[in-house]
Amino acid sequence: MTRVVLYKRFERFWHWTQALLIIGLVITGLEVHGTFDLLGYATAVNLHDILALALIVLIVFAVFWHFTTGEWKQYVPTRKFLREMAGFYLTGIFRGAPHPVRKSRTAKLNPLQRLAYLGFKLLIIPVQVTSGLIYFFYPELTAHGWPAWTLKAAATTHVMGAFLLLAFLVSHVYLTTTGHTPLTNIKAMIFGWELMEEE
Amino acid sequence: MQQSKNKTQGSGSSKNRWRPGRPPRPDHGPALLKWMIMTGLGIAILASGAVSAKAADAPAEKADAHPYLQAHERASTMSTADHSTFAALKGPFPEGDGSAVTDACLTCHNKAADQVMTSKHWLWHPERKGYEDYGKGTWLINNFCISIRGGNYPACTKCHVGYGWKDSSFNFKDPHNVDCLVCHDTTGDYEKEAAGLPNPAVPLDEVAQHVGRPGLANCGTCHFFGGGGDATKHGDLDYTLLKCDKAEDVHMAKDGAGMDCVDCHTAEGHHIAGPDYPLPADMQEKPAYPGQKLDHIACTNCHGEAPHKSFVLNRHYRKVACQTCHIPAYARGSEASNVWWDWSTAGKLKGGRAYETRDKDGNITYATIHGSMVWKRNVKPSYMWFDGSMKFLLATDKLPQTRPVWINRPDGSYADPNAKIWPFKVHKGKQPYDTVLDKLVTPHLYGQKGSGAFWVDHSWPAAIKTGMEISGLPYSGHYGFIRTNMVWPITHMVAPAKDALQCADCHSPNGRLAALKGFYLPGRDREKHESDLGWVVVMLSCVAVVVHGGGRIFFHWTRREK
Fold first, then answer.
1. Which residues does chain B have within 8 Å of residue A143's beta carbon, measured at their own beta carbons?
2. Could you tell me if A90 lies within 8 Å of chain B, comparing CB atoms?
3. What is the overall mean pLDDT for chain B?
4. Among the four B107, B142, B273, B447, which has the fewest Cβ within 10 Å?
5. Claim to verify: residue B347 and residue B491 sit in the same structural domain
């Protein structure tokens, strides 16, 4: 068995900070939406704005990191083992079959993860950031002639995006338990490495 | 409403008129002043005597007196004239002869009357273009005492800055008719009666010798009593403001800024800044040329356009008037404001006599001469878009199709960049109208017995017929009563910041703006079923997790069994 570093220090920092920020944004966002009364509307709005700003800063750093390190290639979709992965989640996992894809430093994500995370990065996050920015700067935008419906459109999109994020979060957390042992993946995301058999 | 709620016009309460406190000043001040004058300027002994006498009876002051109180004091010491020493004001003035005092004033201020006679306080109609008929002196109608034009001049013109407007023949060009004292009396002893003439008991000599800058009570003697009694009409202006605490009004309270009306409603040539009938929104004025004198009507002229620490709060300014959040309720003093006035029940007699009933707070609930009334304190305003202009239904206009009839309505909408959400008092009631011509009528209310005046003869057919004859409007002879609403913008009684509305007062489904439709308000509005759809997606995700996870555990177990 050997230790393979899968997640580097910045990557782990980015992942967990993003996780906390998004959970905070979901909670404060749902309060602004009127789902519950927890912090008070004013606090929720202010916190939501601050967390959003922090997340945008983090995203800027993460984008920089992905391109300078070449890590973006990890997210390029592939068909290789796609069928096997789907089969593993649908049947193999119940039979105790071995994981069909072997992780390595240069290919740490299985084909389904690649698709899911790429969708997350290229769809959900940009939609949330864009709709959020339009929502926040609506007073300035409308003063420059943006039509009134953009506020409602941005708000509705933002809310739907938030629910998608929440659904993603639920599935994501569950799927971390599908590793070698239920905690293998989470430990790897915390400490950065996983024990693997040598080739 | 003439006598009913009138608590202040009696000389007793006007004696209690509150005067702004004075700022701290060194004890040796007046003495030093006196010494300088005694040694150097013997000629001015009289004036110095007046100054030191004034300072001597000043109460002990807190060291932290508000800058406004200090400014008032500075201004009062900088006057270049002591009116008590002028020969022209020595008197004695004939009893009740206000015009004699006016003539004396005009011997020095020889252009003052010309200025007053072009002002809206004199003309009772606004100067703004397109609103020529909107003054109460013209065809404007309300749902309090309805109209001056039905021969009600003497009752209404008690509050005119003139003497003797008792019918439509009043001479608006005669300087002799101008009333200087109602605005400039500083003694609190001045009082006007029918047709604006001074009460004969007013000590005119004393009053004339103590004229000065108008204080709260000068403006209040009319503006607190709109609708005929204290707090009746406006809701945000009543007699309690003279002695209010900061919680009632941060600007006028003596433990607050201690401001006078004219600190904001500044004057130039006797034209007082303020609303015509169409009211200005709270837009910040910009000088048109360097050094242009601006009034201080707009909150922003003193507080700036970014008075909050929070960026998010400051930007509300685009769509929300300051008043909307900072005046959480009107009639916040001890006086209730009239919110319902039903003329249709007026005229009932008990044992052949007019009568009235009152609630436990002393507010009239029924009066033969007025009908049924409802009064409320601490009332949440209604909110509407307002761009500073209003449309009024005049006595000469046909009624609109919609019911109830809105006598006035603020202009503006969400789409209008100049309109903001403003707080309003909505005054509702029932008033007489011509059922055939479909117009509101101008009943004759005030007059002698037998003249048809409703307040003494209690007969609607006679009161309406006479009123329409006097006003010169056509009348079919058939009348009924119709529901009318009127709006009054709320702009006084600004509360301390801590009492301002909080976000969720509006940003919530059933908040204060629940009825103001036509735009998307975060926290209030949402796409139908958007949450339901969202939760379905989340729940599907959870179900998948439970099924998949449950399956794994189950098969893991059965494998172990084997």
1. 318, 417
2. no
3. 86
4. B107
5. yes
- CA-atom Rg of chain A in angstroms: 19
Phi/psi of residue B192, each to 5°?
-105, 155
Judge if B427 and B490 occupy the same domain.
yes
The minimal CB distance from B541 to the residues A34, A93, A167 is found for A167
Distance from CA of A80 to the nearest CA of B (A): 24
Domain count, chain B: 2
Q: Is the dihedral of CA B367, B373, B374, B379 positive or negative?
A: negative
B492-508 pLDDT per residue, tens: 999 999 999 999 999 98
**Using one digit for the tens of pLDDT, what is the confidence trace for B317-330?**
889 999 999 999 99
Alpha-helix residue ranges (DSSP H) falling in B42-96: 45-56, 67-77
The shortest CB-CB distance from A171 to any of B414, B519, B545 is to B545
Is there a single domain that holds both residue B422 and residue B553? no
A181 min Cα distance to partner chain B (Å): 12
Claim to verify: residue B501 and residue B543 sit in the same structural domain: no
Q: Pairing between strand B479-489 and B405-406?
A: parallel
How long a stretch of residues is chain A?
Answer: 199
ipTM: 0.91
CATH class held by domain A2-196: mainly alpha
pLDDT, mean of each 10-residue run, chain A (199 residues)? 86 95 96 90 95 97 94 89 89 87 83 91 95 94 89 94 95 91 89 78
- B485 and B343 in one domain? yes
CA distance A56 to B359: 61
- Structural Rg of chain B based on CA atoms: 29
- Do B492 and B346 share a structural domain? yes
Condensed to tens digits (0 to 9), the pLDDT of residues B214-273 reads 999 999 999 999 998 999 999 999 999 999 999 999 999 988 899 999 988 988 899 988
In a domain, B457, yes or no: yes
Nearest residue on chain B to A49, alpha-carbon basis: B312
Model confidence pLDDT, tens digit, residues A68-88: 999 899 899 888 888 988 999
Is B136 within 8 Å of B165 (Cβ atoms)?
no
Q: Is residue B555 part of a domain?
A: yes
Residues from chain A that touch B534, judged by Cβ atoms under 8 A, are 159-160, 162-163, 166
Q: Distance from B550 to chain A by nearest Cα, in Å?
A: 10
Q: What does the block give as tokens for A149?
A: 């419906």
Which residue in the block uniquely carries the two structure tokens 């406006």?
Answer: B234
Chain B residue numbers touching A34 (CB-CB < 8 A): 508-509, 523, 526
Q: Does residue B434 sit in the same domain as residue B378?
A: yes
Owning domain of residue B537: 530-562
Residues B541, B497 share a domain: no
Is residue B68 scored above 70 in pLDDT? yes
Q: Which of B320, B533, B545, B562 is best to mutate for the A interface (most A CBs within 10 A)?
A: B545
Q: Where are the domains of chain A?
A: 2-196
